Amino acid sequence: MIGKHPAFTAYLSDPLNGGVPLVELGAHPLTPNDRFFVRSHGDIPMLSPSAYRLRVDGRVRVHLELSLPALAALPQHELTAVLQCAGNRRVELLALGDIPDEILWDTEGVSSAHWSGVRLSDVLALAGIDLPRFETGHIAFEGLDTIQKDDQTFPYGGSIPLDKAGDVLLATHMNGDPLPPEHGFPLRALVPGWIGARSVKWLGRISVQDTPSDNYYQTRAYRHFAPYDRKETADWSAAPMLGELPVNSLITAPAANASLPAGEITVQGLAWGGHPVERVDLSTDGGATWGSTQLAPADGRWNWRRWSARLHLPAGDYELTARAWDSAANTQPDQLAVVWNWKGYMNNACHRVRIQVG
Ligand code: MTE
After folding, report:
1. pLDDT for 2
2. What's this model's pTM, rounded to 2 decimal places?
3. Which of 43, 76, 104, 159 is most buried, judged by most C-beta within 10 A?
4. Ligand 1 pocket by C-beta < 6 Å: which residues?
5. What is the mean pLDDT of the chain?
6. Given the CA of residue 196, which atom of ligand 1 is nearest to it?
7. Residue 127 CA, ligand 1 centroid: distance in Å
8. Residue with the nearest Cα to atom 10 of ligand 1?
9. Helices (H), ranges, the chain
10. What value does the mean pLDDT take over residues 57-63?
């Protein structure tokens, strides 16, 4: 049923959670659908396209129930965008402290695709909402999957503030094909530049409301704790809800612990975030000294940028370290301790890869 590539490895099969190793991620400008990471908290619902309806309600002038043909009749738009799970690179944080009850993602929880579908703003306009006229408020998304947690059964959900709504695509297609079941068929939200958790799959309902979603995954997960907070003392209402992604980068080649002949070596990677990436620096000595890399031209506002550097390395041991910068001059912290938190979210510390040369 799920057509994933042999390189796709699952952390969990029920619910399905997994992705591909860095070498596969770096090999494609956009991640093919069979290699795109999957992060699901519940079942994969098998939805009938003819019975499917998208409900739009809340603080709207007209309540809507939109079929797939009604959505297809709206202007179609395209968006190339990265999707990254807030828990990506969590496993690195384990070196500094326990992270209880979470999937220990390595670097697989990020991918990029070309999405197509309709604009959220066009659907809201049908419901009588003219986005710029609203100053405050939230758009809540609800999925048609079923989460079972703490003896309760409920749909997955999350929300974004109204001022982010203009960027959002309601996607029916991924890299030219209808969304695969595990990625949200027949419709998902795509909130570019924000944590993947807000890009609700199997989208069944959109509500315009005064407050953020009261769904578990908005109120009790995906919040940002400080390095000195602990599970036992966590104040969920005080911790900020996660939204925009920080600037981040990965070294996709050479692979960790590779042994390479001395001489010319090409280092390659990916960089992305909530703001456009402007520069990626590279170090061969663990961050003591830095040099430049070449950034491939930007492919739209929300895609990752591929980068590379050709180095001449004599025999020795090296710690390659990448550090991206964005258009607001934000960069990646040098130390994992700066970003450690007991939920293991938002690790954007500099990515490091050790290699042996000679
Ligand atoms: N939407 C629904 N309905 N159910 C989910 O479990 N997981 C979220 C988001 N949307 C989820 C969901 C999370 S945490 C992430 S990171 C992304 O979907 C992952 O999208 P993908 O599986 O297509 O990569």
Report:
1. 78
2. 0.97
3. 159
4. 36-42, 83, 85, 143, 145, 156, 183, 196-197, 199-202
5. 96
6. 16
7. 26
8. 200
9. 22-26, 68-72, 90-93, 120-126, 216-219, 336-339
10. 96
